[in-house]
Amino acid sequence: LLLSLNPASRVPGLWALASPHRYHFVSKRRTWAGAWAYCRGQYTDMATVNGPADLEQLLTTAEPWSLGGGYLYGVGRSAFTRWYAGEPNNYGCKENCVAMISSWLWADRSCTFTRYSVCYQGKCPMSLLRSFSHEY
């Protein structure tokens, strides 16, 4: 999960306990691929949102740190979606990742954008976010 944190609220190395996983809010900006590699190398995996319960858990966990709007990137498919009106639109044929905007709705964005990320520490890897896949 890649996020856009409120600059005044960034705390490097901040941990939040969200049973059964611990989320680690990473304050260095990375692309989706960079964040995924970092989370897999340093922790268990990137945090994912596969349903309403996952989203609620992350938002509840993140609330004290004023995440505001955030970015999340993923591949694949899921029955769970929260698209902003008119999204996904793959504008310019370059938007293949998902952004969580300030209203916590989703919009597609370029995977090369850099954002803050959330990793998790747990017993086994979660699957990557399965939000959508364009077939253009």
Notes on the structure:
- The protein is α+β, with helices and mostly antiparallel strands.
- It has one domain (2-121): Mannose-Binding Protein A, subunit A (Mannose-Binding Protein A, Chain A, Roll).
- 16% of the residues lie in helices and 26% in strands.
- The chain contains 2 helices and 8 strands.
- The protein has helices at residues 32-42, 52-62; strands spanning 2-3, 14-18, 21-30, 45-46, 70-71, 97-100, 106-109, 115-121.
- Strands 1, 2, 3, 4 and 8 form a 5-stranded antiparallel beta sheet that branches. The protein has a 3-stranded antiparallel beta sheet with strand order 5-6-7, with no helix packed on it.
- Strand 6 and strand 7 form a beta hairpin.
- The two termini are 25 Å apart.
- This is LYAM1 protein.
- InterPro entries: C-type_lectin-like, C-type_lectin-like/link_sf, C-type_lectin_CS, CTDL_fold.
- It holds the Pfam family Lectin_C.
- Residues 18-120 form the C-type lectin domain.
- Keywords: Disulfide bond.
Spell out the blueprint of helices and strands:
Blueprint: E1 2-3, E2 14-18, E3 21-30, H1 32-42, E4 45-46, H2 52-62, E5 70-71, E6 97-100, E7 106-109, E8 115-121
Antiparallel strand pairs: 1-8, 2-3, 3-8, 4-8, 5-6, 6-7
Which descriptors apply to this entry?
about 140 residues, alpha+beta, Mannose-Binding Protein A, Chain A, five-stranded antiparallel sheet, three-stranded antiparallel sheet, disordered C terminus
